[in-house]
Specification:
The chain is of the alpha/beta class. The protein has helices spanning 5-36, 38-47, 51-60, 65-89, 118-135, 163-179, 198-211, 221-233, 238-242, 245-249, 265-280, 295-299, 302-311, 322-326; strands spanning 111-112, 115-116, 187-192, 216-220, 252-258, 285-289, 312-317. Strands 4-5-6-3-7 form a five-stranded parallel beta sheet, with helices on both faces. It has a two-stranded antiparallel ribbon with strand order 1-2. α11 (265-280) links the parallel β5 and β6 (285-289). Bound molecules: zinc ion (ZN). Zinc ion (ZN) binds at residues 103, 105-106, 117, 119.
Length: 327
């Protein structure tokens, strides 16, 4: 689950801060205990004496190393015991002098070998959730808050079904999509006029999928193209160069509002590049657009239209502009 650079950076900073704080806490505890019971410092120093040192000492004295190690073990046990007594007598709570890292599995480093530890993954999940929350307008985008009452309940002759019934079916399938999301999930195309709930519904999916620990990037088409433009034509900084990466790497990409941006050769090329690369790497994408599936061809290119029509599951949105109804 490749999280975007910003998410990963903030998550790692939090882990590092927690670990530093834990170490400082331990050092303070140790200082306090040593000051109160100087014998503790001496015991800890003795305990740090390793088996290798015991063997070396035995050789120097022409003694049997096996015996020296056994003696060291006995001595260590006795020292441990004495240490426990002192701590108990001093009234220190349990674990007061344990130098345990924030995460036992990775030692607070965030990685076990080259693999990301579950502690850092959880921090990434939280940071991404924060990022998505600030991105959405109301912060209330959840399936539970989705109201079907705005959709007309009478049969629309053009589609042979009422928009409400159609929306009900779309809602059910989107809920299942979010609940069962995996990297094998299909890509979706939301098509319909403005104000029919496309953005709201894709935000619901984004939140739930992110909650499950997948990396999700949610971006308007305009902002996505701007990132690619900055990387190609902007100042050649590392930061600019890295801007497009997240659109290729994330587990789920949601491109909102496709069709409202100014179309140029560059945006057509970029869109094809993103859609095609993600498709060949089996990474699901959700595209929402106010264009009809048929007009994608004339607006972009035949290749893009055939990708979207051929491999994306189409959901069409019908009804009256909800934002006007709410007023
Ligand atoms: Zn860990």
């Amino acid at each position: 689950m490749p999280y975007s650079e910003g998410v990963l950076r903030r998550a790692r900073a939090r882990l590092e801060q927690a670990q530093t704080q834990r170490e400082a806490e331990f050092a303070a505890h140790q200082e306090q205990a040593y000051e109160q019971f100087p014998r503790l410092r001496e015991i800890d120093r003795q305990l740090r004496l390793t088996a290798a040192q015991a063997v070396a000492a035995a050789f120097r004295k022409n003694e049997d190393p096996a015996q020296a190690i056994a003696a060291l073990r006995d001595e260590n046990l006795a020292l441990q015991q004495e240490r426990d007594w002192i701590l108990e007598a001093g009234g220190f709570e349990e674990g007061f002098l344990d130098a345990t890292p924030v995460c036992e599995r990775c030692g607070g480093r965030g990685y076990v070998g080259s693999e990301m530890c579950s502690c850092l993954r959880e921090l990434c999940r939280q940071e991404q959730k924060k990022e998505l929350t600030t991105l959405f307008l109301t912060g209330k985008e959840s399936f539970d808050n989705f109201s079907l009452s705005y959709y007309p309940d009478t049969v629309d002759p053009a589609i042979g079904i009422s928009p409400r019934r159609l929306m009900q079916m779309t809602l059910t399938r989107c809920k299942r999509y979010a609940a069962e999301f995996s990297l094998r999930s299909e890509s979706l195309l939301f098509s319909g006029a403005t104000g029919l709930g496309k953005t709201f519904l894709s935000a619901c999916i984004a939140r739930q999928v992110a909650d499950k620990g997948f990396s999700v990037v949610y971006q308007s088409a305009g902002a996505l193209f701007a990132d690619f433009e900055a990387a190609k034509f902007g100042e050649r900084t590392d930061e600019n160069q890295r801007l497009p990466q997240k659109y290729f790497n994330c587990d789920l990409l949601i491109i909102d509002d496709l069709g409202t941006e100014m179309t140029t050769q560059f945006t057509i090329y970029t869109l094809y590049n993103v859609i095609n690369t993600r498709m060949t790497q089996y990474r699901p994408t959700i595209v929402s657009t106010n264009l009809t599936p048929e007009s994608l061809d004339s607006r972009y290119s035949t290749q893009i239209a055939s990708r979207l029509q051929g491999t994306y599951r189409l959901f069409q949105f019908f009804g009256n502009d909800i934002r006007l109804l709410q007023k």
